[in-house]
Each structure stands twice: as structure tokens, then as C-alpha cells.
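Need C-alpha cells for this chain, all 440 residues.
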Amino acid sequence: MRKTVFILTAFIALAQTAFAAPSVRQRFNLSFSPPLTAVSRFNSGGELLAVQLSPKGDQPSRIIAVSRRGGLKLVEDLAARKTLTVPGQRLWIAGRPASDGALHASEELPVIRRQVWLARSGECYAVACFATGGWYELRYMDKDGKLLFIAAPKDDYGLASVIISDDGSRVLIDDETPPYSMTKPGQRLYLYDRNGKLLMDRDAGENLDGWLDAQDGFMARDGSCFIAPMGMGKRQCSSVVLLDGNGKQLWDKSYFPRHIIEGDSGGLFRVRGGNLSFINFIDRQGDLKTVERKGYGFELMLSKDAKKAYMMIFKPFDVKNTDLDGQIKAAFPGADVIAVNLPELAATAGGQGSATKPAPASASDVKVALSPDGKSFICYASRAAMGMQETVLKLFGEDQALLWKKYLFQAGIVPKFTGSRDFLLKFGYPIKRLAFFSPD
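Here are the C-alpha cells for all 440 residues:
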């Protein structure tokens, strides 16, 4: 296979390391030029997928694979596709007169832009190539670049978004016009399985109250359901709709004047709306579950299986004198509730720091990444130090023991877990560097 020339050689070291426990080791450190826009987890082949920009930085240009040891290979050269074949009977979508006659002669049109979506598992990805007007062709590929199916529009709405389940088993395509544009409004949703079987074709047409806010919806990791706010008219996001894995609507319920779906937490969907003193969850039956946090300074984070529920405390309080443990276990039966009360999370009052003792990051600057199994987490924050921006990363076990610490003289570094204690460090956006760490 022809070796690619777009990846630069690996750096020998990231930056100054103040402390590094022997339980974690750097496996690779790669710099990319052009940079990356998206990175998956490691897939079943032991590789993560990444989307690389063109030299001009204006288009996704390549899909590449990176092994656990930093090996690189080209999966697909997206820029190699220059034209799209538009069927004659659908040329009107591309802004051209439809062909007459029985043969409906097709026409080749140039590709003017591309867009890519990755399954977070790295098992599949979708590439949409666009021609003029509203015409596009979406190709769904497996992790090795093998074509699984092709989808194209039936209406001149335009491609708004593509949502792929974590495992790649479901693909939801959202075609819609801007709700209040001068053109005739319309929305049409298509749901496909991994092999291209059309499971749902939901055409809401001009009925804005029947539109789903698909772009802000969430697909279950295994594709078994999709939840989204409904209503893009005068009462935007006035209710919540749940579709099953075949696109059948199971229920439509309203809890607050407006709903924002924030994510999937251990099988429940977190929803924001109403009283901000409560953390709200909706289960698959449409029942609302709440955890009160009025007067308490904490954030709730859950492992993938909801067996571990972390209370990340940023404003210390006596957890034992509250009913939070019971409320969390009522929402997530059987969960092990872990209260994390670390100096890294707590606000530190006063002090501007000095050359030898930098000013601490405020609580609002500290972020937390939790491993999928809930057995470790990383606290990270950027701060000014010695006239530079410094990022501090600390890896803790579930017992809150410090396992690893690193100081990097650069801002914009984000950790991303790929396993229990395996994690990537992503540098900047677009991503100019990737570093991978795993236990010995």
C-alpha cells in the first residue's frame, strides 16, 4: 500500500512531567498537518478513526486509522471523488430541469463540498458529498472503508444533520429547510440500519409543530431508541418524543414549557427545563426522575452502565446530612454513589499567584472526564503560569487516589477516555496533536 505523506513524525516528548505514576505510560504522540476534526474510540480492529482536513483547511479530505502503537494508514481519500451522478428524474433537486422521456438521462455534477460523521465506536462512518442545490449523496462505510449503503434525498429540503448510533447500527438522516426561510418549509427524517434497510421515512412537511429537533436529539448507544424535542413553530421544543430502533414513535410527552436534551446517562436521558434546582432524567417509558441540587454545589456524572454515580463536588457541603444518596439511587437503582470532594474541584478564594506559585484555576475552569466504566476520572484545567498558558491534568482512581499527573505548557488540551484507564489527549481544535496513554 502506498504510504501516506500527510502525517508528520511523532514528537519524542509532550512537555514537562512533574509526576508520572508507573501505572500509566505514553504509547504514542503524533502531530498532524493538516489537522483533524474528529476522532473516534478504538474499534474492534484496534484502531481509531480520524477525519483529516484538506491542505487549505476548508474540507474534510481523508479518513485515517491510528493503531494503539501509533501506526497510521489511509482508509479513504475523500478528495478523490470529484463528481456525483444525479438521476434525471431528480435533477430538479440540484436546481436543474428534470429530464424528459422514458430514460430520464442522468447528469454528472461536480462535488462542491463534503461532510463526515463518525460512529463514536470507530466501527463506521458516513460521508456526504454535495452538488449544487439540495442534492447530496451519503455513503455509509465500515471501519475499513467498505461501502455499506448509499442514501440520496427525495425532496429539495437540504441535509441538516446525520446522527449515528455509538455502535454504528443505526443512521438517522435529517433533511430540512430552515424553519423560517423564504422557501417552502419541510422536514423529512430517514432511519436506516447498518446495511441500508430503510426503517423509517417520517415526512413532517410544513407542519413545524411536528418537526423533531433531530440535531439536538440523542441516539441510544446501541441504536435501540432515539429521543428528541418536538416542535419548531411558535412553541419550540414543547414536548419530547421517543422513537424505537425501527423509528416507531413510542410516546410524546411534555414536562416543561421547553425541553433541551443534554445526553444519555446510564440508560436515562438527561433533560433540562423548568426549575434549575433539579437534575432531570427521562426513562424509556417516559417517566421523569429528578435529583435535587438546590443549595448544593455538585455535578452528577455516571458510568456507561449506571453502576457508578459520581457527585463531583465543587462547593463543599456535608453529603451525609442530605438525601442525595437516596435520590440518586432512586433514579439509578443499584448505583454505587461516590462523592468526590477534592481540592482540584473546590473554588479557591483570593491570591494572584507568583512566578513560583501560580494562581489556582477557579472551580469554573476545572473540567472532569469520566471513564466509561466509572473506574477512573481526569480533572483538567488551564491557568496562567510563568507568562504562559499551562494545562494541568490529574488522573484519579474511583477511590480518589492520584494515579498520574502532567503539566503541559499549552491550553486547549482535552482528554478523552477510550477504556478504563486508556485515554487520548487532543491538542486544540482542529486537533493538531494526539497523544495516547494506557496502563503498563
